[in-house]
Write a structure and sequence with these properties.
The complex is a heterodimer of chains A (408) and B (86).
Chain A lengths: L14 E2 L20 E8 L2 E7 L6 E7 L4 E7 L7 E6 L5 E6 L6 E3 L20 E7 L8 E6 L3 E4 L7 E2 L1 H4 L4 H5 L12 E6 L7 E5 L3 E5 L7 E2 L19 E7 L2 E9 L2 E6 L6 E2 L12 E7 L2 E9 L17 E4 L7 E3 L16 E3 L7 E4 L5 E4 L7 E4 L5 E9 L2
Antiparallel strand pairs in A: 1-8, 2-3, 2-29, 3-4, 5-6, 6-7, 7-8, 9-10, 10-11, 11-12, 13-14, 14-15, 15-16, 17-18, 18-19, 19-20, 21-22, 22-23, 23-24, 25-26, 26-27, 27-28
Chain B lengths: L1 E3 L13 E3 L5 H11 L3 H5 L10 E5 L2 E2 L12 E6 L5
Parallel strand pairs in B: 1-5
Antiparallel strand pairs in B: 1-2, 3-4, 3-5
Classes of the chains: A mainly beta (408), B alpha+beta (86).
């Protein structure tokens, strides 16, 4: 991994005050936020919101928005200190950035050097970061290390808590980057993100990433080199090349069994162990009339065999709403051999989508499961999906849902 | 010289809609603005040094054609940030 040589100049940090007189378009405009305990972090098209649970998870209080008017693709708390929060942000045409709070959301600073590409040497079209799409903390032993995935498909690393970001040259400048990503030729309407970053908790140099128009990739040397790991996946378009050109929507690693990967793909639900040659389509066991198309997948941190997905309609023009407009979460407890429909409490009919970063679990017992919708609702279950209730409504279009237990 | 800043960037200028900055070209002017108001340049130009979409810069009421356009102390510089989308 090399240091950037063409990044924007270093800048002094800028403190956003949470209250006070602000202009109508002030980037720091937000309502007061002061978070505590089990918190659901919600990134939306119009800012970040937060749901704080009471001790028994009987009630959740809504705070925010922070950064009203900013597109928040991902709101993530640091699992290492239980107080730091990072936001992957973009405001209209002002470009991408990262905001950070180290005091439970009370005050925020913008990254002094947001993710930005070095000058490419290969004539690619996509040479400007349009969005910071996802954020992922490094190992517990790497206190200030974070990774960021962007659209177009860039990978960045911070070693100072998210204040300054450097390109991971082994990925961004990889000689295969244009072929792997398509260089914008296969871009989604909202951009083609590098959306999943998984760091092996046993070895920080072992990293997986997934991109929307390329597939899944693995590095065993801290990001210096990468290999595609897509054998067994179905490609959305017929092609001879089988090493790349796939569309994983969300890839996750089990925290207690890091050799076990799951993914919700454009073309099904899959799992794979590290040294397996191929992905296995576990979505074939979903009900035929529901199918196994979707965006999000979440795992039970205590049980590698348990996962939740939110199927969507992938027929004809791909409405991406629930099949039959009947929202339901599906859960497997046997690694995908069988799936159970979980819709108690959910509306009988609705036309929303749950995007790839919009499903998360908490650390409660029984486990809490949460998802956010494109019509601004956040739903939660405190019994592993058996029953659902709407925790927040009338929010903007939800782009991400994460949880953390903040320690005061 | 005096630079008019769009509302959307006043979060970087402490609320000021007009700021002072120096330079012999627009590029130098933006670099000086960034020294005075940390972060503002990267909101106007991207990492390739290109104006971000929907940003326009006018010198003496004429839109510039490139960031290397010369400017002088008495010029009036106006940065426009159009808003679009929903």
């Amino acid at each position: 991994m090399s240091e950037s040589t063409n990044n924007p100049p270093q800048r002094a940090g800028r403190l956003f005050e949470p209250l006070g007189e602000v202009g109508s378009f002030d980037p720091g405009r937000h309502d007061p936020v002061d978070l505590e305990g089990l918190t659901v972090l919600i990134g939306t098209r119009k800012g970040a919101f937060f749901l704080c649970a009471d001790d028994g998870r009987a009630a959740y209080s809504l705070q925010g928005p922070a950064f009203l008017g900013h597109i928040i693709h991902h709101a993530v708390a640091d699992p290492r200190d239980h107080r730091t929060i990072l936001l992957a942000a973009r405001t209209g045409h002002l470009g991408p950035t990262v905001f950070r709070s180290t005091d439970f959301g009370k005050t925020w600073k913008e990254a002094r050097r947001p993710p930005a590409f070095d000058r490419p040497k290969d004539g690619r079209v996509c040479d400007v970061v349009e969005q910071v799409f996802c954020l992922a903390p490094g190992l517990p032993s790497e206190h200030d290390t974070w990774y960021a995935g962007t659209s177009p498909e860039g990978l960045f690393r911070s070693e100072d808590g998210g204040d300054t970001w450097s390109p991971v040259a082994g990925w961004n400048d990889n000689p295969m980057w244009m072929q792997w990503t398509g260089d914008g030729k296969e871009a989604n309407p909202d951009g083609s993100p590098l959306h999943s970053i998984l760091v092996d908790p046993r070895d920080g140099k072992h990293i997986y990433i997934a991109t929307s128009s390329g597939g899944c990739f693995e590095s065993e040397d801290g990001g210096a080199s990468w290999k595609p790991i897509n054998q067994g996946l179905v490609s959305p378009v017929p092609r001879e090349i089988t090493e790349y050109g796939y569309d994983p929507h969300c890839m996750v690693m089990h925290p207690r069994d890091p050799d076990l990967l799951y993914q919700q793909n454009h073309c099904g639900i899959y799992s794979k162990r590290r040294h397996d040659a191929k992905w296995r389509r576990i979505g074939d066991n979903m009900p035929r009339d529901v199918g196994d198309i979707g965006f999000a997948i979440a795992l039970d941190p205590r049980d590698p065999m348990t996962a939740w997905v939110f199927p969507m309609d992938g027929t004809d023009v791909w409405p991406r709403t629930s099949p039959g407009a009947k929202p339901a979460v599906y859960r497997t407890r046997d690694g995908g051999e069988s799936w159970q429909r979980l819709d108690q409490g959910l509306p009988k009919r609705a036309w929303y989508t749950v995007l790839r970063q919009c499903m998360a679990v908490d650390d409660g017992d029984p486990l809490g499961v949460y998802f956010g919708t494109t019509n601004g609702e956040v739903w939660g279950s405190t019994n592993a999906g058996e029953e659902w209730r709407c925790l927040a409504a009338h929010l903007p279009h939800v782009y991400s849902v994460e949880t953390v237990r903040l320690d005061r | 010289m005096r630079v008019a800043v769009p509302d959307v960037l006043t979060g970087y200028t402490g609320g000021a809609k007009h700021v002072d900055a120096d330079g012999t070209t627009i590029t130098e002017l933006l670099e000086d603005m960034d020294r005075r108001y940390a972060g503002v340049r990267f909101r106007i130009v991207n990492e390739r040094g290109q104006l971000r979409p929907h940003v326009r810069i006018f010198v003496n009421r004429e839109m510039i054609e490139g960031l290397d356009q010369p400017v002088s102390a008495n010029d009036e510089v106006v940065i426009i940030q159009a808003l679009s989308g929903g």
